[in-house]
From TrEMBL:
Signal peptide: none
One GO biological process term: DNA replication proofreading
Protein known as: DNA polymerase III subunit epsilon
GO cellular component: cytosol
Amino acid sequence: MYAIVDIETTGGHASANGITEIAICIHDGSKIIKRFESLVNPQRDIPVYIRALTGITNEMVQNAPLFKDIAHEVFQLLHGKIFVAHNVNFDFSFLRYHLSQAGYELQCNKLCTVRLGRKIMPGFPSYSLGKLCTQLGIINNSRHRAMGDAEATATLFSLYLERDGTGHITKALKQNSREQVLPPNLPKADIEQLPYTPGVYYFHDSKGKVIYVGKAKNIRKRVCSHFTGNNPGPQRQEFLRNIHNITYQICGTELIAFVLEAVEIKRLWPKYNRSLKRFEHAYALYDYVDQRGYVRLAIDKHRKYQQPLYTCNTLYEGYGLVNRLIEEFELCPKLCFIQKNNAVCNSIHAENCACCGGMSADDYNAKVNAAVDSLNEALPTFAIRDEGRTHDEHSCILIEKGRFYGMGYISHYFNADNVQQLKNHLTPYPGNDYIRNMVAGYASRYPERKLIFS
């Protein structure tokens, strides 16, 4: 027995929107045997564009029942049935969420008439309900109203049942199929071709544009995890509807995948990636020459287009670094913007300090240069040599003077004892401190995979 469902709502995600109308057609496999429909008071304003689309106004639902008042009847109609809808995950997520708010837990097998249409009746230019009905001659006199769309979907589903000579509906309902949890526009073949290896995967929209980049220890398992559950949170339904294709890059290790993901997010700026877009160190150490010719060191906010001497996450960390350089190299705290009052300089040189003119610019700058050189010398050059994509290669990531240089794959027999020779085999990538810190942390956990160059 099938429950063919259509709902109208105030918006695109369940947790922040209400249902304004619901229709359920109980289908026995050949015809509709029972109908249920009701307007619903969503207890919130219906946006003007939705009023224009559906014709359902605030006045129409003002005296309609709340969803909790019809929840028991809706649950009884759906319970034990196969839940069928056009773009099933949208309708199912709304009803499951609002039923749970009323104390009912909906568990149903699902069928999506968008996905079934692509398999049973391939070749149509569009599988939207309106265009599909027009192409097949299905009359719907109440488009964008729940019962009109539910009955049109029921007629469409009857056609599928008649023409499903290869058993696509039966296959979709098998316990291990899980096809109905996939986004409506994503071919199952895209999932079936995913490998069980570390790598980076890309979700593409209908125009081929990358809208999400992810990394994984196991690409297929991680991709499928995006589609499990029925999270009613904001943007999830929009996100799923926009996934039309998946591509991927196999990586030798999870670390390579992590680094490549960070690089690709910066390169492609996908719509649905957020966390790594925002990552930037907040502060940095800069140097400049003042009007008297003295080199000044200063901690300031990180500037995107200015090369810093050093980067740090917090102002406290930056001041700690500068104080260490002042003490170790006898620098002036006033010229380093640590001492900001008008009192006598509290350096060991006091009245003979550079800030008072007691030390020449050449002599003081030599101290600053020595401090900067110490920072550069402290920045390590090393590589991580690890597993490759095949048995006859290794993956390799190079950090040169504390900065991420690039990565790639080298022969199992390649002797990586020379930085310049190694760089010829690697692909340079733009780096950032997130990547540098990630690679450094990995090196500290797995020192046996670290190559240090003299």
